[in-house]
Specification:
- The complex is a heterodimer of chains A (254) and B (253).
- By secondary structure, chain A is an all-alpha fold.
- Chain A has 2 domains: 55 residues; 183 residues, no CATH class.
- Chain A is built from 10 helices and no strands.
- Chain B has 253 residues and is of the alpha/beta class.
- Chain B has a domain of 166 residues: Rossmann fold (3-Layer(aba) Sandwich).
- Chain B contains 9 helices and 10 strands.
- In chain B, strand 7, helix 6 and strand 8 form a beta-alpha-beta unit.
- The chains are: A mainly alpha (254), B alpha/beta (253).
- At the A-B interface, helix 7 of A face helix 2, strand 6, helix 3 and helix 5 of B.
Chain lengths: 254, 253
């Protein structure tokens, strides 16, 4: 696609702007900022990827994945506000998930060990793991409050913290998996995934594109499950106070 | 041997940093039952939650058999100082699995016969043990939750209005069950009750909480016949301040 063709796509933004102005939605400023950010970020990423693909430096590759994990962990840690060390716990869970996913893909020779494959697949895996981790934390915070009675009853019956939150953790992991599993059931029927669409437009054989999409969908389910479970194992202790091991109240204005 | 000494100069943070209770001290021997009396909002329930390590005291210390709770692993403490909450919470699963929970959690064998005998004694003999515990009535849950805690065989029991949703007959059989349990196992008990007749029947000593503290610590007989403070008199409805809303002045012509 030429830059002239790209420039014409601003037409879509103008349509949105017009509707916002006409219907007095007051979204003009947001749309303008969003448009500029999206264009700049995506173009920058394009050039960065181009440079990485050419340089073939492992360090550069590692740095890009590290940036992905840090940004994703920052985003998801907002869901676990108040929990000490939540950022590092999420980052550790995401890193472990990424290593596991890439380990399997590369060791079994499913994908070629080049940045061209590793970066997009890492980005998608980490992004999906981030969503799952965020959902898990949201639900864990909610559940630890709504299941307070159950957790405290278990504690009062001599349960260890781990035993007391087991049911709560299980429910939170299940909850975090729902979008991934639902997505798996409808993929291809309701929506054509972005990656597959992109490959097809760029000239790839649709069946080839589908094969990669299947890989992505399957990798997503395990990355979501692994991330939520790891995050659960890393965070459940933080639901309890250090000294007497009582259930901490998070998210309360004190 | 079972001595629970407790001094809690506690400044409970409750939203607006309200002092809930402070300088609360006392000790209970094994086999002794102390009933806590007092109007609502004195922090009676919070006191029990602090004693069962479900809530943190601001300061003060709690001991069991001369061992501080700070030196003991919380789960071991809670196993010996069992707390039965005012609102019973059933664990997911059947009546039977609720009864088995204490042993399952602590890796001990489940003495099913004893559990069922207790059910019977509490008037729950006719309940199908396979029934989903969440389908029980409020009063049934309350009794099941008490029995569940008894099966931990704790040294000490913290009971928070455990007969509040029971009819008088069932409440009496629970009192009888607890009194038998106490004489057989030597369990010490700290029992919150709003039923003064029950307090008189079931306890040997009364802690009367008022003004953020234990205002009176007296033998049950003495407290009910001659409370030492005006607040105690007023609480029993015989005080000089006869404007007691709980009195018989409700009868109108």
């Amino acid at each position: 696609m030429s830059y002239t063709a790209l420039a014409f796509t601003v037409l879509f933004i103008m349509i949105t702007m017009f509707i916002s102005y006409w219907q007095k939605l007051g979204l003009e400023k947001g749309i303008a900022i969003g448009t500029i950010r999206a264009a700049v970020q995506l173009l920058a990423v394009g050039y960065v990827l181009q440079a990485v693909f050419e340089s073939r430096s492992h360090w550069l590759l590692a740095a890009i994945i590290a940036v992905m994990i840090v940004v994703a962990a920052r985003n998801a840690s907002a869901k676990g506000k108040g929990v000490p060390g939540i950022f590092w716990r999420i980052a550790a869970a995401l890193l472990a998930t990424e290593l596991l996913m890439m380990g399997i893909l590369l060791l079994l020779g499913i994908i070629e060990p080049t940045p061209r494959y590793i970066i997009p697949l890492s980005g998608m895996t980490i992004g999906n793991a981030m969503v799952a981790g965020g959902l898990f934390l949201t639900q864990l915070m909610r559940e630890s409050e709504s299941s307070r009675g159950e957790i405290e009853t278990l504690l009062a019956l001599g349960a260890s913290p781990r035993q007391a939150v087991q049911g709560t953790l299980k429910r939170a992991v299940r909850y975090s998996m729902i979008p991934t599993i639902d997505g798996m059931k409808t993929v291809g029927l309701v929506q054509l995934p972005g990656m597959m669409t992109g490959m097809i437009i760029a000239g790839a054989d649709p069946v080839e594109a589908v094969r990669y999409q299947i890989l992505i969908v399957f990798a997503f389910t395990s990355s979501a499950a692994v991330t939520s479970m790891l995050l659960g194992a890393l965070t459940y202790r933080k639901l309890f106070s250090d000294g007497i091991g009582m259930l901490v109240r998070y998210g309360r204005a004190d | 041997m079972d001595r629970l000494a407790k001094s809690l100069p506690a400044k409970k943070a409750d939203g607006g940093r309200r002092m809930l209770f402070q300088e609360v001290s006392g000790s209970i021997s094994s086999g002794e039952t102390v009933v806590v009396l007092g109007r609502s909002g004195q922090g009676k329930s919070t006191l029990l939650r602090v004693l069962s390590l479900l809530e943190q005291a601001d300061s003060g210390s709690v001991e069991l058999d001369g061992k501080s709770c700070a030196d003991m692993e919380p789960r071991l403490w809670r196993r010996q100082v069992a707390y039965v909450s005012q609102t019973p919470v059933m664990l997911p699963g059947s009546v039977d699995s609720n009864l088995a929970a204490p042993s399952a959690l602590n890796g001990l064998p489940f003495e099913r016969e004893q559990a069922y005998a207790l059910l019977d004694e509490a008037g729950l003999g006719s309940i199908d043990p396979g029934k989903d515990a969440s389908e029980l009535s409020g009063g049934e849950k309350q009794r099941l939750s008490l029995i569940r805690s008894l099966l931990l065989k704790p040294h000490f029991l913290l009971l928070d209005e455990i007969t509040a949703s029971l009819d008088p007959g069932s409440a009496l059989s629970i009192e009888k069950l607890l009194s038998r349990w106490r004489s057989e196992h030597g369990t010490g008990m700290l029992w919150i009750s709003h039923d003064q007749e029950q307090a008189a029947r079931a306890s040997s000593r009364i802690w009367f909480m008022a003004g953020n503290m234990i205002l009176e610590d007296a033998d049950t007989g003495r407290f009910f016949s001659r409370p030492a403070t005006p607040e105690g008199l007023a609480f029993l409805g015989k005080g000089p301040s006869s404007g007691d809303p709980g009195g018989s002045g409700a009868e109108e012509s």
